[in-house]
Design brief:
Layout: H1 13-64, E1 68-75, E2 78-85, H2 94-99, E3 103-110, E4 118-119, E5 141-142, E6 148-151, E7 160-166, E8 169-175, E9 182-187, E10 192-194
Antiparallel strand pairs: 1-2, 1-6, 2-3, 4-7, 5-7, 7-8, 8-9, 9-10
């Protein structure tokens, strides 16, 4: 169609307002999904960092021939993570860390609290399989009765789980005992799914 001068037509103010309203509605409807995706990405990213730290501690233990442990320490200003080496071949023990027998391989570092991800358990989250109950929000670090995961020179580990929470989502970083396999699982409010 050939337009001649005077026949060109633009959008009226009403048409422009309707188009802007539709665009705003689409964006508004997509924001919760974008927010959930962002939080999930942050949780999985944090879980991958812990997975890497667990693997690094296992590698140090195998390389040095000494038990090595990652210890979560709760202080007034947050949670710290430190790596320790067995000083007398009886395992890394909290008492021996305090006495100086089991030495830090590096100074404990404070875990960042960015508000979206925290070491914790949200209320109303079921235990990962094979558990059948609900998780205790007061115990987000579960390696036996301690807050320390130990690795042996044989490649084994203290079995347990570290829980990370974000708005409506929960992540579990699990360590198996016999082969120190580390798995990341995510709870999206319905069931646990293995993320590898």
């Amino acid at each position: 169609m050939i337009h001649t001068r005077g026949q060109e037509r633009g959008l009226s103010l009403v048409e422009l307002m309707i188009a802007m309203g539709i665009l705003s509605s689409v964006l508004w409807l997509g924001l919760p999904a974008l927010k959930a995706y962002t939080i999930e990405s942050a949780l999985i990213g944090a879980a991958d960092i812990f997975k890497g730290e667990f693997r690094r501690a296992r590698s140090v233990s195998i390389r040095t021939g000494r038990k090595t442990a990652l210890r979560f320490e709760e202080r007034d200003d947050g949670v710290y993570l430190g790596m320790y080496s067995d000083g007398n071949y009886n395992g890394v023990l909290s008492r021996e860390i305090a006495e100086g027998t089991d030495q830090p391989l590096e100074e404990p570092v404070r875990l960042a609290d960015n508000g979206a991800v925290r070491v914790g358990i949200a209320p109303g989250v079921q235990e990962p399989p094979p558990g059948r109950g609900m998780l205790d929000p007061n115990r987000p670090i579960r390696f036996g009765q301690s807050k320390m995961v130990s690795f042996s020179p044989l490649g084994t580990a203290t079995p347990g789980t570290l829980y990370l929470a974000g708005h409506g989502l929960q992540v579990a970083v699990r360590v198996t005992g016999t082969d120190a396999r580390i798995r990341v699982m995510i709870w999206r409010g319905i069931a646990w799914q293995d993320e590898g």
